[in-house]
């Protein structure tokens, strides 16, 4: 059977680093308050000349270089983002142009923080369906553009950045030992829209709007929903938590990450955590964490890696990958 194998990975972060202490003159908060409740120590904030497209392009080029490929080798770009450069066209098309691609096709995917997991699953289907041989999957966000900087409950949580992988079609035996995407499970439930949303849009207010969140409600639902899709993935693949080499969750909150790993029975030393360095970068958080763990040698070829995310909507999902 055809498997979607990770051929390369890359990341890109804005130049400016904003530490927790930098908020102390803006809103009523402190480094200790933020770190204790979220695990975040700093985040990257995009400058005026840094956009979702430019960050996505840089991450894509890094992934291509890591794979030993060029834009000419790519058939499809799938960009996960909630902060596009324009209402339309899709920011993925702008990245395609920046890369000098005059072939193939590109589209954006909007599932908020679950976007990268959704995008990997979608790219896998295109590859297994024979419509693409190599796909650039990118998660890129500039959430700083939609934050209310007077709301201390949200402005301290988010950051900007991008991560990307190159998926390539390869033959597999159809077993758990195959490299590539092994299993996936996606879910959504629009009943929870008002718990995490942006209060603007072209069809409603004609404005960009600002991010709004009921933090306690999101936390309350997160662990149970995450567990649901992960158990579905385990069932599809015929594995257990003990078989996982690395757990790469959405980097939203250290407390949610710890609670999820504990409920699933995944040992702390198998959990990749970068929320302290990047904050919540929405659809970019999983590929940024992946890139960090690959770069420092933790994730190696042959490792069984579990990806997971939950975002506004609510949307949530999990993907199991043999690296």
Characteristic terms for this protein:
9 helices; 323 residues; Peroxisomal Thiolase, Chain A, domain 1; alpha/beta; five-stranded mixed sheet
List strands and helices in order, with pairings.
Elements: E1 2-12, E2 16-19, H1 31-38, E3 42-45, H2 52-67, E4 76-80, H3 91-98, E5 105-109, H4 115-128, E6 134-142, H5 152-155, E7 160-171, E8 180-188, E9 196-198, E10 211-213, H6 215-237, E11 246-249, H7 254-264, H8 275-278, H9 285-295, E12 304-311, E13 315-322
Parallel strand pairs: 4-5, 4-6, 11-12
Antiparallel strand pairs: 1-7, 2-3, 6-7, 8-13, 9-10, 12-13
Commentary on this structure:
By secondary structure, the chain is of the alpha/beta class. The protein is 31% helix and 26% strand. A hairpin with a 3-residue loop joins β12 and β13. The mean pLDDT is 97.
Numbering strands along the chain, what is their spatial order in the largest sheet?
1-7-6-4-5
CATH domain fold name of the largest domain: Peroxisomal Thiolase, Chain A, domain 1
Give the CATH superfamily of the largest domain.
Thiolase/Chalcone synthase
Question: What kind of assembly state do the chains in view correspond to?
Answer: single chain
Q: What is the count of helical runs? A: 9
Largest sheet: 5 strands, mixed
Task: Report mean pLDDT, rounded to a whole number.
Answer: 97
- Helical percent range? 25-40%
Strand content range: 25-35%
Briefly, what CATH class of the largest domain?
A: Alpha Beta
